[in-house]
Specification:
By secondary structure, the chain is an alpha/beta fold. The strands form four sheets. It has a seven-stranded mixed sheet, with helices on both faces. Strand 6 and strand 7 form a beta hairpin. Helix 2 crosses helix 3, helix 4 packs parallel to helix 5 and helix 8 runs parallel beside helix 9.
Length: about 400
Amino acid sequence: MKPRRYQLNKDAHAIIENGHPWIFREQLSSAAQVFRDGDWLRLVDAKNQVVGYGIYEAEGAIAIRVLRKGPVAPTAAWLGAMLSAALVKRDPLTGRTTGVRLVHGESDGIPAVVIDKFGDTLVAQCYAKGAQGLTRLAARMLAIELDIPNVILRPAHRRAGRRTAEGAPAETGRVLRGHPPDVAHFTEQGLAYAVDLAGGQKSGAFLDLRGLRRAIAGLPLTDARVLNTFAFSGMLGRAAELAGARAITQVDSSASALAFAAAHHVTDAAKHTFVTADVFQWLPALAEDALFELVIVDPPSMTSNKAQVPAVLAGYRKLYRAAAPHVAPGGLLVAACCTSRVEPGEFHKVVSETLGGGFVREGVLAPEPDHPVGFLQADYLKIGLWRRRPVA
């Protein structure tokens, strides 16, 4: 499509110059009101010089996603170069896993485009109306380059934390190539995982939690009791079973997600208990004497609105306050946050203050190579490991 001209004000121009990929709505001038959702824009300065290209979004905090900085328009050759650079970043994962995020949106310089690889299947998602063609082209180029037979384009939910209602029709997506299966498979450090492409959230699996799965699989959990809240499809529970846990309680609001976990991520069914419940209500009501050597609390993203951050932080305080008494002395609490509007330092401070002196932070997990952090808001996933002090 032919880009439409838009003259940036000083604030928006400064964002382009500083290399940030988003122009927020409050930084737009009234001239932007004529644009439609998905319009490609030719961004110019006060001297009418082209300083970049972007995609307009009619709703939400992000008004323009910057496609490319500078006077040269995005082309297929440009996209190919960006994809090649993204693949190089994933080199450290070669041989370790067949589940890889090949494109991580703006952090790989390809705004609104996410493409995950699960074995012989690519799952592409688009987070802006105007990037749909770009997403399809990127997926096809990667499929050809990597000789991937199956490609599916799945709908992406714009609003952070939004989940498909239980019982709602599954959004299976559009087949772009081959015959994608309803259930895809990949391996990670030799452990097999399954991905629900027919009804799962997002691309069907959370590849960004690879580091946490690896950490849990390496823990000394022989005969340990594990509580996995917001369990989704039970991948973290599978890692805990591999580490020797004897009893794993997995809680999620989605009965279908837990059914998938039971069908695909359990070796010894006797070790697993599945509970369909709202964790925010279930955890505070848990019996006082219920103790676990490992407690995992990894809620979905709670907001994309900066003004709601104080309320979200209150929600995290409630969760970790409720979880703390159920960590056995000497046990471990995994405190995670994927709300991008909450900055890492802010989150870890909230957890520290909530847990108090009875816990010591043992470490923080860094992002995986296929989830690069290209700008502040891309540092969305925060994972801290907290050890409860043993009884003196």
